Structure formats: structure tokens, C-alpha cells
Amino acid sequence: MKKLKLLFTLVLLALLTTNCEKDDLCAEDVTTPMIVLEFYSNSDRTTLKPVTNLKVTGLGLADSLANFNNVSKIMLPLKTTEDATEYSLVLFSTSEALKNENLLRFNYTRNNVYVSRACGYKTLFQLDRTTPFVLTDIAPLDNLWIRGISVEQPNIENQNETHINIYY
């Protein structure tokens, strides 16, 4: 009888431990991806052109984004509860008084995917086929500083590839 109880206890313990996850940490590569933008020269659309004195603000987002200086690639979060996210992209010349602000809205559909018990869900995005973005000049007299945009990858499933090219 004692051997039977011991065997039952060992089997129960084995079943309980095999159903647990190894840890409750969630790797960064399985979280909701951000949209990746690369900046290129408008005159030579194959040459990366680092952007200087760029301030990006997400409209309606809880977190404000930092200023970007001398970078040719940035990553921006998309809203996981709406099908559009708007950003104000302000390019400063020599001082904050000389600025050119463009408004860029990304239109997309969302797909929530279950990752694991530790990670929960992540959201994947698909840019809209007909209108993936809308570019607006805040002050039309100063003209758009963004001269062109191309969608390189409409499926936003990871941050290892460029999704949007911006030409200026």
C-alpha cells in the first residue's frame, strides 16, 4: 500500500511539473512589434540620409517619444486598440523657432495572437492596402519636408525589417 501511495504521489508530481512553463519572463522578440521607418535622400532614393533634429510625437499615445538626431532608422509604436495611429514629425532647422511639422497617419488592421501564458497576447498589424498612410502639412505655407513615402513591407510582424521608407 505504501508503495502504491508513493507511486501515485510521484506520478501526480510529474504531471504537475510538466504543465508549468519554465519561467514567467517574456522575450522581447515575441512582443507587439513597432513600425520601422528608414529615411532616404529624396534626390537619390537609394542612399540612406540620417535625419537631424527630428521630434516625433504620437497623437493620443500615453508615452511621448524622444527627439531623434543623426539617425536613419526609427521605430514607432502603433495603437493596439485602434486601426490608425497619428504622429507629428517636426523637423527643426537651426533652432526650435524654425520648424516644419508634418502629420503622418498609419492606417491598418490588427490581429491579436496568443503567445504564451507568460507573454499573453501580441498584436500584429497589416497596413491598409488602399490607404496605408496619410501625409498632411500642418502649416501649408512651409511645404512638406517629407517629399515621398513608400511601403516596403505592409505586414508588421517583427522589427527586423523596414516597413516604411521616407524620402526628404
Structure, explained:
With 168 residues, the protein is mainly beta. It has a single domain (29-167), classed as Immunoglobulin-like, CATH 2.60.40. Helices cover 10% and strands 40% of the residues. Strands 2, 3, 5, 6, 7, 8 and 10 form a seven-stranded antiparallel beta sheet that branches. Strand 5 (84-92) and strand 6 form a beta hairpin. The protein starts with a helix and ends with a strand. The relative contact order is 0.20.
Strands, helices and their partners?
Blueprint: H1 2-18, E1 35-40, E2 54-59, E3 67-68, E4 73-76, E5 84-92, E6 99-116, E7 120-127, E8 133-137, E9 148-151, E10 155-156, E11 164-167
Parallel strand pairs: 1-11
Antiparallel strand pairs: 1-4, 2-3, 2-5, 5-6, 6-7, 6-8, 7-10, 9-11
Q: Which structural class do the helices and strands define?
A: mainly beta
What is the tally of beta strands? 11
Give me the CATH fold name.
Answer: Immunoglobulin-like
Question: How helix-rich are the residues, as a percent range?
Answer: 10-25%
Using the alpha-carbon principal axes, give the shape. Answer: globular
The CATH architecture is Sandwich
Mean pLDDT over all positions: 86
| Biggest sheet descriptor | 7 strands, antiparallel
What's this, in brief?
The protein is 10% helix and 40% strand. The protein has 168 residues and is mainly beta. It has a single domain, classed as Immunoglobulin-like (Sandwich), CATH 2.60.40.
Features:
single chain; 168 residues; mainly beta; Immunoglobulin-like; 7-stranded antiparallel beta sheet; 4-stranded mixed beta sheet; 10% helix; globular; disordered N terminus
